[in-house]
Amino acid sequence: MSRKYGFVAYIDESGDDGLDKVFPNRSNGSSEWFVLSAVVVRAENENKIGKIQREIISKFKNTQRKYIHYRDLIDAKKQIACSEIGRADLRCFVVMSNKKNMERYRNEKCKKDKNYLYWWCTRLLMERVTEFCESKSIKLYGEYMQ
């Protein structure tokens, strides 16, 4: 049976989307940054993601890690991880919002939804991922996948 999709996007976030009190403006505030990212792979490479992760971890000396949490890595291991990701057959997309200048900002059109920053960043991320997948689909398959 043929695939009905050409790409897979793995999406994750870091930080939070709270805007009432933002660190470092407020010592007990929410994270200064909200980051939403996607790693996109061709469907036929979907099963290679675990192998890429294991290869990165295997290059970390003296570790028992089974996962990669970038924030917890020392600089040398961050460099290893980035180099390996840069060599992998995948594409990364990131939307970053520095929230210091948005503290206490209110959008009247969105006042019923306290997660509007999250949804706005999601929209921006998905627009870029979709544009990439569309462009690659035409090059790879000669048309959009049905």
Commentary on this structure:
With 146 residues, the chain is an alpha+beta fold. It is 34% helix and 18% strand. It contains 3 helices and 3 strands, in the order E-E-H-H-E-H. It has a 3-stranded antiparallel beta sheet, with helices on one face. Helix 1 packs antiparallel against helix 2.
Q: Biggest sheet: strands side by side, in what order?
A: 1-2-3
Strand content: 15-25%
- Structural class, by secondary structure, is alpha+beta
Q: Tally the beta strands.
A: 3
Q: How many alpha or pi helices?
A: 3
Shape: flat
Give, in order, the helices and strands: EEHHEH
What would the average pLDDT be, to the nearest integer? 87
- Sheet of most strands: 3 strands, antiparallel
From the N-terminal CA to the C-terminal CA, the straight-line distance is 14 Å
Number of domains: 1
* Helix content estimate: 25-40%
Radius of gyration, in angstroms, nearest whole number? 19 Å
Low-confidence stretches: none
